[in-house]
Amino acid sequence: MPNNRDVARKRTLNLIRKFKLDPGYALEYRNFMSDVIQKGYAEMVPQDMLQRQDGKVWYIPHHAVYHKRKKTLRVVFDCSSKFQHASLNDELFQGPDLANPLLAVLLRFRQEPIAMMADIEGMFHQVRVLKDDRDLLRFLWWPDGDTSKNLQEYRMTVHLFGAISSPTCANFALRKTADDHGHGYAEEVSRTIKCNVYVDDCLKSVATEDQAINLCKDLRDLCSQGGFKLTKWICNSCSVLASIPDEYKAKQLKELDLDREKLPLERALGVQWNIEKDTFIFRVTRQDRPLTCRGILSFVSSIYDPLGFLAPFILKAKQILQDLCKRKCGWDDSISETYLTPWKNWLADLEQLSNVQIDRCIKPKNFGQVEKAQIHHFCDASEHGYGSASYLRLTNKEDEIHERNKWNRPRRNLSTGDIVVIVDETAPRNSWQLGRVVKPLPGSKGLVRTVLVKTKTNTLQRPVSKLCLLMKAEDQG
């Protein structure tokens, strides 16, 4: 590698001006770097290595990235910085993608009623770099963050944010931990580490609270044997949360009274999760963007929906953008009134998304153990778009099939004494007969599907689908 120390030095010295303009920024930056050094994630370059000349030395510039939602600052190392047509990331081998697919992790998270989530603390920083390779991860910083002192040379001892090899190395180390130490635990523990972790987030769902309590403990123990700390635990069960030591709980849960206070909203890999109701919710903030093709594309692309729940809604906006592109509108040209009105109407409808709630768990409550599962797919297409829907058909140990009403409210069972109108599709509605239910005929599951109805002339047996409830028995004087 060429000697790029001067480039790194100039970029580090540029920080002084930013520090003077924003003391708060300077304090957070210094605290972050101090934490990295104190925890042993970085070390001063040994004196006998300062003049290393074998081409295995590289200086990485660094800068801060501010997380708007978490309101925290993180220092990121610019491994893509080039000098003489070379950069560290150009020379690193990225390695195979060992990360689980995002969609797969989220779908597994929906399988069972008890859901829990945790975070691997500083995952990349828990994986060491070989000593001979550390000089490729050098950076410049001031002792104690004091910019009045001379810059010193440090080097990372662990994998860092910004290097293309870090995700693969960290994932490999985590999986190796499961392989090397998993034999002392139930198979489910190792499988969770291998199949239910996305980058540094662990999402898991299980059938019972006892399973969750045991799994939480075993996961913490197994990960700790590889130097990983599973922390920031969240669960939709108060009993499970009560079993987790406070130091491992998510910050917002540590002071929560589990007996009196509601569980908070949280994000599961970016998807908003109402833990108390155990539903996925959607809150899209309306942002001011230019009324241009570029502005529309920017806004539509900013809506995060990995599970595709909002696809039918987003399709309308995509159709507007598609029409604009067909008409070869410039990216920064103002859109015409023809498209301005439907676009503004679509933006106005955004507020309605807050009313949408999707059950996190795909299984019905109290359904029991699933013995069979089938997936049924339906697809269709038109000139405007493609549509598809997938349904899960579940059968439990009692050979019962999960029944679900088609987007209608559950109906009350007809009772003795109810007054009904008998549907007769061969006659005008104003001539349909009135009748009184004299005997409900419930099925094996207690649902009334057929009743005996007494009219003026006789008694009829009719399915409830052919009856319209006019007045409940308890409402009659």
UniProtKB/TrEMBL annotation:
CDD domains: RT_pepA17 (cd01644). Its EC number is 3.1.26.4. It is an enzyme of class 3 (hydrolase). GO terms for molecular function: RNA-DNA hybrid ribonuclease activity. It comes from the Eukaryota. Signal peptide: none annotated. Residues 108-231 form the Reverse transcriptase domain. SUPFAM superfamilies: DNA/RNA polymerases (SSF56672). Belongs to the beta type-B retroviral polymerase family. HERV class-II K(HML-2) pol subfamily. This is ribonuclease H.
